[in-house]
Structures are given as C-alpha cells and as structure tokens.
Automatic annotation (TrEMBL):
It comes from Desmophyllum pertusum. It comes from the Eukaryota. SUPFAM superfamilies: Actin-like ATPase domain. InterPro entries: ATPase_NBD. This is Uncharacterized protein.
Length: 220
C-alpha cells in the first residue's frame, strides 16, 4: 500500500568497511526512503560492515567446509572482495561468541569492476577509443554480452596455470572495427605490437597468461 512503511523487528544492510560515516548515513537515508525501515524507529535498522557479516557467515557454516582452525587461536583474517571495493580485516572470536576487531580495516577501490576497467582499456588500446565507445552506445546488448563473457573468464584459473584466455568478440563489434579500420580486422590487429595478445579468426580476443595477469594486477 502506498505510504506504508514495512515494519520489521530488525533489518540489516551491509556496507564496505572502508566507507566513511557520511556514506553509511546516506545508505541509511536511502533505506528509509525505500520503506525498509522508519526514521522514527532508527534502531530497527542496523548498518553492518561487510567483513563482519562475512565473518559471521563463515562461523555459521559447517566447519568441515573450511581448513582446520586451532581452538587456542580463534583468529579470522577476512578478505571481502566485491564489485567495487576490497576490505581486509582481522577478527578474534571471543569466548562469549562475539567478534572483536583486532586490526583496523584496510582496503580500497580494488574490486572486480577495476579489472573490467582494465579490460575495456585494453580493447580501446587495440581497436580505438572511438570504436569501442560507439559499440557501447549503439549495441548495448552485445556490449553486455562481451562483458559477461569476460566476467566468466576472469574468474578462471587459466591465466595462473599458464594458459591462454579466449574471449569471444560479438560479430557486430568485429564488423564495426572492420568498417573503421579496413576490410580485414586480422591485418589491423597484426599492426599492434603488444605481446601475448592475439586476435583469431576475427572472433576471439586471446590473452596469454602474462597479458591476463597484467589486466588483473593493474587494478591494484
């Protein structure tokens, strides 16, 4: 019903641990406007830090799913990696079950989207900023298809196992590049001098293990 506030006993919203108080307050105000909680009863909404939530989640999982933990040293080193940020902190599990932060959280804007940005920069370097920009605007569905393809491939182990990562390029993108750079996309690509990168059959953008590791490490 319009204007009705959802009444809940307690609500939780997780935020990156590196966020400053103004950013956390912005999230709280957004939750109020969304009807998740009411500003009249602020205690019904808790803003939790993502590493804390991850730590609690791990404790609730079956312990056999994790490496053995020495009971006399109940310390958790928590890495919380998301789309835009990476948080790292250390927690101690107290005897009463509570969690104590034993080292100030650190981190930064080093999430998975930074790797995506490096991949886009690589595309722009080889095919031209104007061509990539035109493709993103004129073919949004195919652009999403390309980025989803890269999303799956960047999570794999091929680069760290010394193998080549093959990323399928949409036909519409290959056609667009050909129109801007000549009839043969392979010849256009061959003029590039970057090592460990190949374009095969006007269809696959192939990054050798060295090139793929550079894309990933350059985001840090």
């Amino acid at each position: 019903m319009k204007g009705t506030v959802l009444r809940i006993l307690s609500g939780f919203i997780t935020v990156p641990a590196i966020w400053k108080p103004p950013a956390k307050q912005f999230m709280r105000e957004a939750a109020y406007q969304a009807g998740i909680a009411s500003s009249d009863v602020p205690e019904q909404l808790l803003i939790a830090l993502e590493p804390e939530a991850a730590s609690v989640y791990c404790r609730e999982r079956k312990m056999r799913e994790f490496p053995p933990v020495r009971e006399e040293m109940p310390i958790l080193l928590v890495f919380s990696s998301k789309g835009g940020t990476l948080d790292v902190t250390a927690h101690e599990i107290l005897t009463n079950g509570n969690i104590k932060e034993i080292h100030q959280v650190t981190g930064g804007p080093y999430g998975g989207t930074k790797v995506d940005d490096q991949f886009v920069s690589l595309l722009e370097r080889f095919f031209g900023t104007a061509v990539v920009g035109t493709f993103r605007v004129s073919c949004p569905a195919e652009w999403l298809e390309l980025m989803n393809e890269f999303e799956m491939k960047k999570r794999g182990r091929r680069a760290f196992d010394g193998e080549t990562t093959r990323i399928r390029i949409p036909r519409t993108f290959a056609t667009l590049v050909s129109e801007h750079g000549g009839p043969d996309l392979a010849r256009r690509f061959a003029r590039c001098t970057t090592d460990d990168v190949q374009f095969i059959r006007n269809e696959y953008f192939c990054l050798g293990s060295t090139a793929m590791r550079k894309v990933i490490s350059a985001s840090f």
